[in-house]
Specification:
By secondary structure, the protein is of the alpha/beta class. The protein has 2 domains: about 120 residues, Roll (Urease, subunit C, domain 1), CATH 2.30.40; about 290 residues, TIM Barrel. The protein contains 15 helices and 17 strands. Helix 10 crosses helix 11 and helix 11 crosses helix 13. It starts with 12 loop residues before the first strand and ends in a 5-residue tail after the last helix.
Amino acid sequence: MFPEPDLPARTDLTITGLTVVTMDPHLGDLVDATVTVESGVITAVTTGPSGDPDAVDGSGLIALPGFVDTHWHLWNSLLRGTVGDAPGRDYFSVKRGLGPHHDIEDFYWAARFALAEAVTAGITTVHNWDHNVRSPEDADVNVQAQLDAGIRGRFSYGPRDSTPSGEQMDLADLRAFLDRWPAGCTDGLLDFGVALRGPYRTPADVYRPEWTTARALGMPITMHCDRCLREAGCRSCGLTRLADEGLLGPDVQIVHAVHASPDDITALAETGTRVSLSPITELRTMGFPLVSELMAAGVPVSLSTDTLAMPTAPDVLTTLRAVEAVETARCGAGEVTPRRLLEMATIAGARDLGLDGVTGSITPGKRADLLLLDGSAANLLPTGDLAEALVRQGRATDIVTVMVDGRVLLENGRLVQASAQAAIDEADARRDALVARARAAGAWE
Protein backbone atom coordinates (compact mmCIF):
# COMPACT_ATOMS: atom_id res chain seq x y z
CA MET A 1 0.00 0.00 0.00
CA PHE A 2 2.69 2.46 1.09
CA PRO A 3 6.45 2.36 0.46
CA GLU A 4 9.10 1.31 2.90
CA PRO A 5 10.66 4.34 4.63
CA ASP A 6 13.55 5.66 2.56
CA LEU A 7 14.17 9.12 3.97
CA PRO A 8 17.93 9.74 3.74
CA ALA A 9 20.00 10.38 6.85
CA ARG A 10 21.08 13.90 7.71
CA THR A 11 24.38 14.93 6.17
CA ASP A 12 27.03 16.97 7.95
CA LEU A 13 29.04 19.02 5.49
CA THR A 14 30.91 22.24 4.86
CA ILE A 15 30.57 23.89 1.47
CA THR A 16 33.06 26.57 0.43
CA GLY A 17 33.29 29.07 -2.41
CA LEU A 18 29.55 29.74 -2.51
CA THR A 19 27.68 32.82 -3.56
CA VAL A 20 25.02 33.03 -0.86
CA VAL A 21 21.74 34.95 -0.98
CA THR A 22 21.06 34.58 2.74
CA MET A 23 17.75 36.52 2.95
CA ASP A 24 19.06 37.50 6.38
CA PRO A 25 19.08 41.33 6.64
CA HIS A 26 22.16 41.24 8.86
CA LEU A 27 24.20 38.96 6.58
CA GLY A 28 23.02 40.06 3.13
CA ASP A 29 24.50 38.52 -0.01
CA LEU A 30 27.91 36.91 0.39
CA VAL A 31 30.60 36.02 -2.14
CA ASP A 32 33.18 33.26 -1.64
CA ALA A 33 31.27 32.12 1.43
CA THR A 34 31.28 28.96 3.49
CA VAL A 35 28.16 27.31 4.89
CA THR A 36 28.48 24.61 7.53
CA VAL A 37 25.68 22.16 8.36
CA GLU A 38 25.73 19.83 11.37
CA SER A 39 22.92 17.57 12.61
CA GLY A 40 20.38 19.37 10.46
CA VAL A 41 21.38 22.86 11.67
CA ILE A 42 23.21 25.67 9.88
CA THR A 43 26.05 26.16 12.33
CA ALA A 44 28.13 28.76 10.48
CA VAL A 45 27.95 31.16 7.54
CA THR A 46 31.33 32.81 6.95
CA THR A 47 33.46 34.27 4.19
CA GLY A 48 36.90 33.13 3.15
CA PRO A 49 38.61 29.74 3.57
CA SER A 50 37.04 27.24 5.97
CA GLY A 51 40.10 25.32 7.10
CA ASP A 52 38.10 22.08 6.88
CA PRO A 53 40.06 19.53 4.80
CA ASP A 54 36.84 17.67 4.03
CA ALA A 55 34.97 20.75 2.79
CA VAL A 56 33.11 20.49 -0.50
CA ASP A 57 34.03 23.00 -3.19
CA GLY A 58 30.92 24.99 -4.08
CA SER A 59 32.56 27.32 -6.57
CA GLY A 60 30.09 28.39 -9.22
CA LEU A 61 27.06 27.57 -7.06
CA ILE A 62 24.49 29.98 -5.64
CA ALA A 63 22.95 29.09 -2.28
CA LEU A 64 19.42 30.17 -1.36
CA PRO A 65 17.14 29.29 1.54
CA GLY A 66 14.52 26.74 0.52
CA PHE A 67 11.31 28.19 -0.88
CA VAL A 68 8.22 28.23 1.33
CA ASP A 69 4.81 27.44 -0.19
CA THR A 70 1.99 28.62 2.06
CA HIS A 71 -1.12 27.07 0.42
CA TRP A 72 -1.17 23.88 -1.63
CA HIS A 73 -4.02 21.37 -2.04
CA LEU A 74 -1.84 18.27 -2.18
CA TRP A 75 -4.80 15.90 -2.08
CA ASN A 76 -6.00 16.68 -5.63
CA SER A 77 -2.64 16.53 -7.40
CA LEU A 78 -3.65 13.44 -9.39
CA LEU A 79 -6.33 15.51 -11.12
CA ARG A 80 -3.67 17.13 -13.28
CA GLY A 81 -4.45 16.36 -16.91
CA THR A 82 -8.19 16.02 -16.31
CA VAL A 83 -8.80 19.75 -15.88
CA GLY A 84 -9.04 21.80 -19.07
CA ASP A 85 -11.08 24.23 -21.12
CA ALA A 86 -13.74 21.81 -22.41
CA PRO A 87 -17.26 22.07 -20.95
CA GLY A 88 -17.48 20.23 -17.63
CA ARG A 89 -13.71 20.01 -17.35
CA ASP A 90 -13.08 23.18 -15.34
CA TYR A 91 -11.28 22.78 -12.03
CA PHE A 92 -14.34 22.93 -9.80
CA SER A 93 -16.38 20.48 -11.89
CA VAL A 94 -13.52 17.97 -11.97
CA LYS A 95 -12.83 18.36 -8.27
CA ARG A 96 -16.49 17.80 -7.39
CA GLY A 97 -16.74 14.82 -9.73
CA LEU A 98 -13.56 12.99 -8.75
CA GLY A 99 -13.03 14.18 -5.17
CA PRO A 100 -15.46 11.66 -3.59
CA HIS A 101 -13.74 8.74 -5.36
CA HIS A 102 -10.29 9.19 -3.88
CA ASP A 103 -9.26 6.29 -1.68
CA ILE A 104 -6.62 6.24 1.05
CA GLU A 105 -3.84 5.34 -1.37
CA ASP A 106 -4.85 8.17 -3.70
CA PHE A 107 -4.53 10.71 -0.90
CA TYR A 108 -1.09 9.39 0.07
CA TRP A 109 0.32 9.18 -3.46
CA ALA A 110 -1.21 12.47 -4.60
CA ALA A 111 0.64 14.18 -1.76
CA ARG A 112 3.88 12.32 -2.50
CA PHE A 113 3.60 13.22 -6.20
CA ALA A 114 3.19 16.92 -5.46
CA LEU A 115 5.94 16.90 -2.84
CA ALA A 116 8.33 15.21 -5.25
CA GLU A 117 7.69 18.00 -7.74
CA ALA A 118 8.12 20.51 -4.91
CA VAL A 119 11.61 19.18 -4.23
CA THR A 120 12.63 19.53 -7.87
CA ALA A 121 11.41 23.14 -7.70
CA GLY A 122 13.36 23.92 -4.53
CA ILE A 123 10.31 24.11 -2.26
CA THR A 124 11.33 22.83 1.15
CA THR A 125 8.29 23.91 3.20
CA VAL A 126 4.67 23.24 2.17
CA HIS A 127 1.38 24.19 3.81
CA ASN A 128 -0.80 21.19 2.94
CA TRP A 129 -4.25 22.79 2.69
CA ASP A 130 -6.62 19.80 2.84
CA HIS A 131 -10.22 20.68 1.96
CA ASN A 132 -11.25 17.07 1.39
CA VAL A 133 -10.81 15.31 4.74
CA ARG A 134 -13.46 12.61 4.56
CA SER A 135 -12.24 10.40 7.41
CA PRO A 136 -9.59 10.29 10.13
CA GLU A 137 -7.51 8.02 7.88
CA ASP A 138 -7.53 10.65 5.12
CA ALA A 139 -5.92 13.18 7.42
CA ASP A 140 -3.44 10.70 8.82
CA VAL A 141 -2.10 9.53 5.45
CA ASN A 142 -1.60 13.13 4.36
CA VAL A 143 0.55 13.74 7.42
CA GLN A 144 2.42 10.49 6.87
CA ALA A 145 3.07 11.38 3.23
CA GLN A 146 4.65 14.67 4.21
CA LEU A 147 6.80 13.03 6.87
CA ASP A 148 7.87 10.29 4.46
CA ALA A 149 8.82 12.96 1.92
CA GLY A 150 10.87 14.84 4.52
CA ILE A 151 9.25 18.19 3.68
CA ARG A 152 8.74 20.80 6.38
CA GLY A 153 5.41 22.55 6.79
CA ARG A 154 1.88 22.50 8.10
CA PHE A 155 -1.12 20.26 7.60
CA SER A 156 -4.42 22.15 7.81
CA TYR A 157 -7.42 19.94 8.50
CA GLY A 158 -10.57 20.92 6.61
CA PRO A 159 -14.04 19.60 5.80
CA ARG A 160 -14.64 17.12 3.00
CA ASP A 161 -15.04 18.64 -0.44
CA SER A 162 -18.53 20.02 -1.14
CA THR A 163 -19.69 19.71 2.47
CA PRO A 164 -23.16 21.35 2.69
CA SER A 165 -22.94 24.88 4.03
CA GLY A 166 -25.12 24.05 7.03
CA GLU A 167 -22.96 21.09 8.11
CA GLN A 168 -20.04 21.54 10.49
CA MET A 169 -16.71 19.93 9.80
CA ASP A 170 -15.83 16.99 12.04
CA LEU A 171 -14.78 18.89 15.15
CA ALA A 172 -14.69 15.71 17.24
CA ASP A 173 -12.11 14.17 14.95
CA LEU A 174 -10.21 17.46 14.78
CA ARG A 175 -9.64 17.10 18.51
CA ALA A 176 -8.86 13.39 18.15
CA PHE A 177 -6.44 14.21 15.33
CA LEU A 178 -4.27 16.22 17.72
CA ASP A 179 -4.29 13.28 20.12
CA ARG A 180 -3.16 10.96 17.31
CA TRP A 181 -0.36 13.37 16.41
CA PRO A 182 0.91 14.77 19.72
CA ALA A 183 3.59 17.41 20.01
CA GLY A 184 7.02 16.05 19.17
CA CYS A 185 5.87 13.17 16.99
CA THR A 186 6.76 14.85 13.69
CA ASP A 187 10.46 15.42 14.43
CA GLY A 188 9.88 19.16 14.22
CA LEU A 189 8.89 19.00 10.55
CA LEU A 190 5.13 19.58 10.80
CA ASP A 191 2.61 21.53 12.79
CA PHE A 192 -1.17 21.58 12.38
CA GLY A 193 -3.83 24.11 11.45
CA VAL A 194 -7.49 24.27 10.42
CA ALA A 195 -8.89 25.12 6.98
CA LEU A 196 -12.27 26.81 7.47
CA ARG A 197 -14.97 28.04 5.06
CA GLY A 198 -15.96 31.16 7.00
CA PRO A 199 -18.96 33.51 7.08
CA TYR A 200 -19.63 33.78 3.35
CA ARG A 201 -19.90 30.04 2.83
CA THR A 202 -21.49 28.88 6.08
CA PRO A 203 -24.06 30.25 8.56
CA ALA A 204 -23.15 31.56 12.00
CA ASP A 205 -24.04 28.32 13.78
CA VAL A 206 -21.39 26.59 11.66
CA TYR A 207 -18.51 29.04 11.31
CA ARG A 208 -18.53 30.42 14.86
CA PRO A 209 -18.12 27.03 16.62
CA GLU A 210 -15.46 26.06 14.06
CA TRP A 211 -13.51 29.29 14.66
CA THR A 212 -13.92 29.04 18.43
CA THR A 213 -12.77 25.41 18.49
CA ALA A 214 -9.71 26.14 16.38
CA ARG A 215 -8.65 28.95 18.67
CA ALA A 216 -9.35 26.94 21.80
CA LEU A 217 -7.07 24.22 20.42
CA GLY A 218 -4.40 26.78 19.54
CA MET A 219 -4.53 25.89 15.85
CA PRO A 220 -3.82 28.58 13.22
CA ILE A 221 -6.71 29.20 10.84
CA THR A 222 -6.68 29.49 7.06
CA MET A 223 -9.61 30.51 4.85
CA HIS A 224 -10.17 31.03 1.13
CA CYS A 225 -11.38 34.45 0.06
CA ASP A 226 -11.45 34.03 -3.69
CA ARG A 227 -14.77 34.81 -5.37
CA CYS A 228 -16.60 35.65 -2.15
CA LEU A 229 -18.76 38.57 -3.26
CA ARG A 230 -17.88 38.79 -6.95
CA GLU A 231 -21.14 37.11 -7.91
CA ALA A 232 -23.03 40.01 -6.30
CA GLY A 233 -21.17 42.46 -8.54
CA CYS A 234 -19.19 44.27 -5.85
CA ARG A 235 -15.43 44.46 -5.45
CA SER A 236 -14.98 43.27 -1.90
CA CYS A 237 -13.93 40.19 0.01
CA GLY A 238 -16.08 41.19 2.97
CA LEU A 239 -13.08 41.03 5.28
CA THR A 240 -14.27 44.05 7.24
CA ARG A 241 -17.09 41.84 8.49
CA LEU A 242 -14.57 39.28 9.72
CA ALA A 243 -12.69 42.07 11.47
CA ASP A 244 -15.88 43.34 13.10
CA GLU A 245 -16.60 39.83 14.39
CA GLY A 246 -13.10 39.41 15.78
CA LEU A 247 -12.25 36.63 13.34
CA LEU A 248 -9.11 38.18 11.83
CA GLY A 249 -5.72 38.29 13.52
CA PRO A 250 -2.12 37.05 13.38
CA ASP A 251 -3.37 33.48 13.74
CA VAL A 252 -5.36 33.77 10.49
CA GLN A 253 -4.22 33.34 6.90
CA ILE A 254 -6.49 34.57 4.10
CA VAL A 255 -5.91 32.93 0.72
CA HIS A 256 -6.19 34.92 -2.55
CA ALA A 257 -8.14 38.08 -1.49
CA VAL A 258 -8.12 39.04 -5.17
CA HIS A 259 -11.26 41.17 -4.80
CA ALA A 260 -10.24 42.89 -1.57
CA SER A 261 -11.42 46.49 -1.27
CA PRO A 262 -9.24 49.22 0.27
CA ASP A 263 -11.22 48.77 3.51
CA ASP A 264 -10.59 45.01 3.40
CA ILE A 265 -6.87 45.63 3.00
CA THR A 266 -6.88 48.08 5.90
CA ALA A 267 -8.61 45.46 8.07
CA LEU A 268 -5.95 42.90 7.16
CA ALA A 269 -3.12 45.32 7.97
CA GLU A 270 -4.60 46.52 11.25
CA THR A 271 -5.20 42.97 12.54
CA GLY A 272 -1.88 41.50 11.40
CA THR A 273 -3.68 38.93 9.25
CA ARG A 274 -1.53 37.12 6.69
CA VAL A 275 -2.35 36.70 2.98
CA SER A 276 -1.21 33.82 0.78
CA LEU A 277 -1.25 34.58 -2.94
CA SER A 278 -1.37 32.01 -5.77
CA PRO A 279 -0.54 34.27 -8.73
CA ILE A 280 -0.86 31.79 -11.59
CA THR A 281 -4.21 30.27 -10.60
CA GLU A 282 -5.52 33.70 -9.59
CA LEU A 283 -4.67 35.15 -12.99
CA ARG A 284 -6.33 32.19 -14.72
CA THR A 285 -9.56 32.05 -12.72
CA MET A 286 -10.07 35.08 -10.47
CA GLY A 287 -8.31 38.27 -11.52
CA PHE A 288 -5.16 40.18 -10.70
CA PRO A 289 -3.51 39.36 -7.36
CA LEU A 290 -3.20 42.60 -5.38
CA VAL A 291 0.49 42.24 -4.65
CA SER A 292 1.37 45.92 -4.78
CA GLU A 293 -1.63 47.09 -2.76
CA LEU A 294 -1.11 44.49 -0.04
CA MET A 295 2.62 45.15 0.26
CA ALA A 296 2.12 48.92 0.33
CA ALA A 297 -0.37 48.54 3.20
CA GLY A 298 2.05 46.39 5.20
CA VAL A 299 0.00 43.20 4.95
CA PRO A 300 2.23 40.12 5.32
CA VAL A 301 2.19 38.45 1.87
CA SER A 302 3.49 35.00 0.91
CA LEU A 303 3.53 32.75 -2.16
CA SER A 304 1.70 29.53 -3.00
CA THR A 305 1.16 27.03 -5.80
CA ASP A 306 -2.51 26.33 -4.94
CA THR A 307 -2.97 23.08 -6.87
CA LEU A 308 -1.39 20.94 -9.57
CA ALA A 309 -4.86 20.15 -10.94
CA MET A 310 -5.03 23.47 -12.78
CA PRO A 311 -2.59 24.14 -15.63
CA THR A 312 0.27 25.28 -13.44
CA ALA A 313 3.61 24.13 -12.05
CA PRO A 314 5.49 25.05 -8.87
CA ASP A 315 8.37 26.83 -10.61
CA VAL A 316 8.91 29.58 -8.05
CA LEU A 317 11.35 31.76 -9.95
CA THR A 318 9.21 31.72 -13.10
CA THR A 319 6.16 32.63 -11.01
CA LEU A 320 8.00 35.53 -9.39
CA ARG A 321 9.07 36.76 -12.81
CA ALA A 322 5.44 36.73 -13.95
CA VAL A 323 4.37 38.62 -10.83
CA GLU A 324 6.96 41.33 -11.37
CA ALA A 325 5.91 41.76 -14.99
CA VAL A 326 2.20 41.93 -14.16
CA GLU A 327 2.71 44.36 -11.29
CA THR A 328 4.92 46.60 -13.41
CA ALA A 329 2.18 46.69 -16.06
CA ARG A 330 -0.54 47.33 -13.45
CA CYS A 331 1.17 49.72 -11.09
CA GLY A 332 4.57 50.68 -12.48
CA ALA A 333 7.86 50.17 -10.68
CA GLY A 334 7.35 50.42 -6.96
CA GLU A 335 6.73 47.98 -4.12
CA VAL A 336 7.28 44.77 -6.08
CA THR A 337 11.04 44.53 -6.53
CA PRO A 338 12.97 41.31 -7.18
CA ARG A 339 14.28 41.39 -3.61
CA ARG A 340 10.78 41.76 -2.16
CA LEU A 341 9.60 38.89 -4.33
CA LEU A 342 12.40 36.61 -3.11
CA GLU A 343 11.41 37.54 0.43
CA MET A 344 7.81 36.63 -0.39
CA ALA A 345 8.95 33.14 -1.43
CA THR A 346 11.31 32.57 1.51
CA ILE A 347 11.39 34.46 4.80
CA ALA A 348 7.91 36.01 4.42
CA GLY A 349 6.47 32.56 3.77
CA ALA A 350 8.23 31.21 6.83
CA ARG A 351 6.87 34.13 8.86
CA ASP A 352 3.33 33.41 7.59
CA LEU A 353 3.59 29.87 9.00
CA GLY A 354 5.30 30.95 12.20
CA LEU A 355 8.53 29.29 11.10
CA ASP A 356 10.80 32.31 10.60
CA GLY A 357 12.90 31.22 13.58
CA VAL A 358 13.39 27.83 11.90
CA THR A 359 13.69 28.41 8.15
CA GLY A 360 13.35 31.06 5.44
CA SER A 361 16.93 32.39 5.56
CA ILE A 362 20.45 31.03 5.66
CA THR A 363 21.17 32.02 9.23
CA PRO A 364 23.30 30.22 11.82
CA GLY A 365 21.02 28.37 14.24
CA LYS A 366 18.23 27.77 11.73
CA ARG A 367 17.50 24.36 10.24
CA ALA A 368 19.37 23.45 7.08
CA ASP A 369 16.75 24.00 4.36
CA LEU A 370 18.93 24.98 1.40
CA LEU A 371 19.03 25.17 -2.38
CA LEU A 372 22.13 25.14 -4.53
CA LEU A 373 21.74 26.55 -8.04
CA ASP A 374 24.13 26.38 -10.97
CA GLY A 375 25.45 29.92 -11.10
CA SER A 376 27.18 29.20 -14.40
CA ALA A 377 23.90 28.48 -16.21
CA ALA A 378 23.68 30.60 -19.36
CA ASN A 379 20.37 32.15 -18.30
CA LEU A 380 22.00 33.59 -15.14
CA LEU A 381 24.96 35.17 -16.92
CA PRO A 382 26.27 37.83 -16.94
CA THR A 383 25.22 38.32 -13.32
CA GLY A 384 24.70 41.74 -11.80
CA ASP A 385 22.42 42.06 -8.80
CA LEU A 386 21.76 38.53 -7.54
CA ALA A 387 18.10 39.02 -6.69
CA GLU A 388 17.43 40.55 -10.08
CA ALA A 389 19.26 37.74 -11.87
CA LEU A 390 17.36 35.01 -10.01
CA VAL A 391 13.90 36.53 -10.38
CA ARG A 392 14.29 37.83 -13.93
CA GLN A 393 16.28 34.96 -15.45
CA GLY A 394 16.19 32.04 -13.01
CA ARG A 395 14.22 28.82 -13.42
CA ALA A 396 13.73 25.56 -11.58
CA THR A 397 16.12 23.69 -13.88
CA ASP A 398 18.98 25.74 -12.40
CA ILE A 399 18.53 23.91 -9.08
CA VAL A 400 21.04 21.10 -8.60
CA THR A 401 20.78 20.29 -4.89
CA VAL A 402 17.99 20.56 -2.33
CA MET A 403 18.44 19.92 1.38
CA VAL A 404 15.65 19.85 3.97
CA ASP A 405 16.47 19.64 7.66
CA GLY A 406 19.98 18.53 6.76
CA ARG A 407 18.80 15.73 4.44
CA VAL A 408 19.76 15.87 0.77
CA LEU A 409 16.57 15.17 -1.22
CA LEU A 410 17.80 16.32 -4.65
CA GLU A 411 21.37 15.66 -5.74
CA ASN A 412 22.81 16.63 -9.12
CA GLY A 413 19.28 17.45 -10.23
CA ARG A 414 17.89 13.98 -9.40
CA LEU A 415 15.54 12.90 -6.63
CA VAL A 416 17.33 10.86 -3.97
CA GLN A 417 14.31 8.90 -2.68
CA ALA A 418 13.13 5.96 -4.77
CA SER A 419 9.64 6.49 -3.31
CA ALA A 420 9.58 10.08 -4.59
CA GLN A 421 10.50 8.95 -8.09
CA ALA A 422 7.87 6.18 -7.88
CA ALA A 423 5.22 8.78 -7.07
CA ILE A 424 6.06 10.51 -10.35
CA ASP A 425 6.41 7.34 -12.42
CA GLU A 426 3.05 5.95 -11.27
CA ALA A 427 1.01 9.18 -11.39
CA ASP A 428 -0.65 8.45 -14.76
CA ALA A 429 -1.73 4.96 -13.72
CA ARG A 430 -3.11 6.17 -10.40
CA ARG A 431 -5.04 9.01 -12.09
CA ASP A 432 -6.48 6.58 -14.65
CA ALA A 433 -7.61 4.17 -11.92
CA LEU A 434 -9.29 7.05 -10.06
CA VAL A 435 -11.17 8.16 -13.17
CA ALA A 436 -12.22 4.55 -13.89
CA ARG A 437 -13.72 4.22 -10.40
CA ALA A 438 -15.64 7.47 -10.85
CA ARG A 439 -16.93 6.28 -14.24
CA ALA A 440 -18.04 2.97 -12.78
CA ALA A 441 -20.01 4.90 -10.16
CA GLY A 442 -21.65 7.04 -12.86
CA ALA A 443 -19.93 10.22 -11.62
CA TRP A 444 -17.70 10.79 -14.65
CA GLU A 445 -18.09 10.69 -18.40
